[in-house]
Fold this sequence. Notes:
By secondary structure, the protein is an alpha/beta fold. It has helices at 14-25, 40-44, 47-64, 80-104, 171-174, 191-202, 222-234, 328-342, 373-378, 394-399, 431-439, 444-449, 459-467, and strands spanning 2-10, 30-34, 108-116, 129-133, 140-149, 153-155, 168-169, 183-187, 206-210, 238-240, 243-245, 251-253, 256-263, 266-272, 274-277, 281-283, 297-298, 301-302, 315-317, 358-360, 365-370, 383-389, 405-411, 417-424. A hairpin with a 6-residue loop joins strand 4 and strand 5.
Amino acid sequence: MSQEYDLVVLGAGTGGYVAAIRAAQLGLKVAIVEKEKVGGTCLHKGCIPSKALLRSAEVYQTVKKSGDFGVETNKPTLDFSQVQKRKDGIVDQLYKGVQHLMKKGKIDVYEGHGRILGPSIFSPSPGTISVENTKGTENEMLVPKNVLIATGSHPRSLPGLTLNESTILSSDEALKMETLPSSITIVGGGVIGVEWASMLADFGVDVTILEYASHVLPLEDEDISKEMKRALKKKGITIVTDARVISDQVEEKDGQVTVPYEHKGETKSVSTEKVLVSVGRAANVDDIGLQNTDIQVEKGFISVNEHYQTKESHIYAIGDVIGGLQLAHVASHEGIAAVEHMTGDDDAQAIDPDNVAKCTYSSPEVANVGLTEKAAKEKGYEVKTGTFSFKAIGKALVYGDTTGFVKFVSDAKTDDLLGVHMIGPHVTDMISEAALARVLDAAHWEVAETIHPHPSLSEAIGEAALAVDGRQIHG
Length: 475
């Protein structure tokens, strides 16, 4: 038996379910196919659970330092089972919220694995969705006018390095740890690797990072990367950059995992209780029926145009599965843009990646929008920069954390704001001001003219904007 829909969404992650809600708001009859739980990776295996753990690590460190604030406590102890229980409670509450949103929008949710069929008795065009449900009953057939592929991604590994549930982990398995290891090697010093390194070190784990590039957070502005390396080393984390892991020679013996690597022409190794592999994510494009369509896959990602249409104009794709910025908030906005286009809005805007705020929720936090200083110069801009440290910000002193700074990158000829980069306390909550400035095509001096409240951490933004022209007040 088949069911007809205006839109069927493959994947109920952040991008998929937000797109479904927007489609329902526009009057479409919508269904979602999800083989696990609505909410996807972000809610169940990524953004939310990892940030819950990071918050517990932050609180643990705050309590340990409470004497600095005049608050005396007994020696704090960490109950990791309670940490995990709190994390699971947050995820469960949000999961129920998403389920409610599906019911509110009258969106049908099909539990099972969805595959795109080619032309058939159901439709002369590719796009009918066969749902293989988890109950083992006959497949259900969904016949939509449009399809949105939002199947997300999964953690990558390295050749010869087999992930397991106990010693060699991806972030998926690490989130399930019932006890903390005494030591861990993190392969990869990007966003996820740095967040886990920061968290585990704050929990008291002996952490080593092996990063192939010359800096941790290699996509950040170099000044930010250098400051992060300094901050992580202060936590006691061992960091080896320019390290090529010899993944097919990783060995397990006597409760230790030994990871060999090449560094400056020498072969070395590190042995720890566990290994966390954090080397990026691969798109979920296998076994979803793409071979039954004209959809093109390039370098592992589905190719789309500026409206997120594939080569099959009635089949759209968004989120991690199309590459680009693999971020939950990006997937959500791509989903909205795709749905608005398929409903006739030809002016629906594709996302400009240079206007997207990107965050790392480690301690210290990192946030940025726009071009790094290096990228701006490579694009041919003559740049001028302004930097202001949190050490001169009263609220940072009150808060008890003066790590980091705010950096502005501007066009020396036009004063156009090219990029803003931050590292320090609560910068992930501050970056939206800079993102709005980018969207409005503001100049750094216009940001400087915005009156920032005192005392506040955001004063560093105004001072950094002033510093571009050497006009900072408190530095």
